[in-house]
Design brief:
26% strand, alpha+beta
Length: 409
């Protein structure tokens, strides 16, 4: 994975760092990169779902290359909120039969959805970009349900724990998602769409044709205008004219502060980690004692204590282990889970050696205390004052915690 503020490129879980194109990430150029806030698989690898959506106006690989070019047609469409009089036909709705299970609904089929406008929302529950789009997706599902819109969340997991349906059930309950969710653990729907991003939205008209797509966060007004346009085409006589006005008052779903975000998503597991600064480096798949870097520079991080670093996450073997990160952003999140025994793990957060006070996140008290109780993204820091380079430290007071990745906002 390589990320600059507002854009993340991802490979399939399990790929090693040798699969990545190192030219994507250059910290010195971070503020000059295009801002497409989403996660992307590395489509150059043979393990990537390679079947492309038939009927695209251009191959998916070319379309996504355009997205990374600030002068490309796709990028210009992304910032232009004017919806064309007629949306182009990009392909046909894929089969939904590949879903291994459905939540909030009996299984749906492409045929049963004819006559409805459908929004397929590709997401995974620990993805910060997906979480920040949810207030809009949920609002559209509620607002336009009676006018013929069907929103379907297609849950395509990134981490191993996201394959567990019970975890997804808990997440959609906690997130207040009441529309149908297809469990795409085999990436069947993802492959059929030729998709490469979390989140990704595909808008399908009443005749089953894909008419628009959007990758990543933002551009919500244009997306809603496209929904209304297709509802009108389908014959809805009472399409609402006002756009939804939604925001997250707190927690991880608040829109990112992209202008002041200068830290990249960072994985803890050795297969995709970068900028690790503990002396001696990471020891793969073996218990080791680590020491925190004394003076980390921006975006360097390290471990302290008895840890075992695996491909996807690091596990704390004894109590009082720490993770240290020098960051620059308003928000800091960390994907965490309790150990295999499921016992809660207490932690304490500091910023520059002090309790976070008014800069605490929604999963932390002002004194820095918190508890890991389930496998998910934890919102740990939300700075309220001037954003500057800060040193984040989280100390785990109990053993067993599993740490996956940092994200920022």
């Amino acid at each position: 994975m390589h990320e600059w503020p507002g854009i993340e490129f991802h490979a399939r879980p399990g790929l090693t760092s040798s699969h990545y194109n190192e030219s994507y990430w250059n910290p010195s150029h971070a503020t000059h990169r295009p801002r497409l806030s989403g996660r992307r698989f590395d489509h150059t690898q043979s393990v990537y779902p390679a079947n492309r959506l038939s009927g695209r106006s251009q191959p998916a690989s070319a379309a996504l290359a355009d997205a990374a070019n600030p002068g490309s047609a796709m990028m210009m469409r992304a910032v232009n909120s004017v919806v064309p009089a007629t949306l182009p036909v990009e392909g046909e709705i894929p089969s939904l039969a590949g879903a291994v299970q459905w939540l909030n609904s009996p299984p749906l089929t492409a045929q049963s959805l004819r006559g409805k406008v459908v929004l397929l929302d590709i997401w995974t529950y620990s993805c910060i970009n997906c979480l920040r789009t949810l207030p809009y997706v949920k609002a559209w599902a509620d607002k336009y349900r009676d006018q013929g819109l069907v929103v379907i969340g297609v849950h395509a997991p990134e981490f191993a724990f996201e394959y567990k349906v019970d975890n997804v059930k808990r997440a959609i309950h906690n997130l207040g998602i009441d529309y149908p969710v297809a469990i795409d653990n085999n990436f069947a729907i993802w492959r059929a769409l030729g998709n490469e991003y979390w989140p990704a939205d595909y808008l399908i008209d009443a005749e089953g044709r894909i008419r628009a797509h959007h990758f990543g966060e933002g551009d919500y007004a244009q997306a809603e205008q496209q929904v209304r346009q297709l509802l009108a085409e389908a014959g809805s006589k009472q399409v609402a004219t006002a756009l939804v006005n939604t925001s997250a008052d707190g927690g991880a779903q608040l829109a990112q502060d992209a202008a002041d975000m200068h830290s990249p998503e960072t994985y803890i597991g050795y297969s995709r980690t970068e900028h690790f600064a503990s002396p001696g480096g990471e020891v793969n798949d073996k218990p080791a004692i680590y020491h925190a870097p004394l003076n980390p520079i921006l975006n360097q991080w390290g471990l302290a204590g008895a840890w075992q670093v695996g491909q996807e996450f690091a596990t704390l073997n004894r109590a009082s282990g720490r993770i240290v990160y020098r960051f620059h952003s308003r928000d800091l999140h960390l994907v965490l889970g309790p150990g295999a025994d499921g016992k809660p793990v207490r932690f304490r957060v500091t910023i520059d050696g002090m309790p976070p006070a008014q800069d605490h996140g929604s999963d932390v008290a002002g004194d820095g205390s918190g508890t890991v109780t389930e496998q998910r993204l934890y919102q740990l820091v939300r700075q309220n004052g001037k954003i500057a380079d800060r040193t984040f430290t989280i100390e785990f007071l109990d053993p067993g915690v599993q740490a996956y990745s940092f994200t920022f906002g």
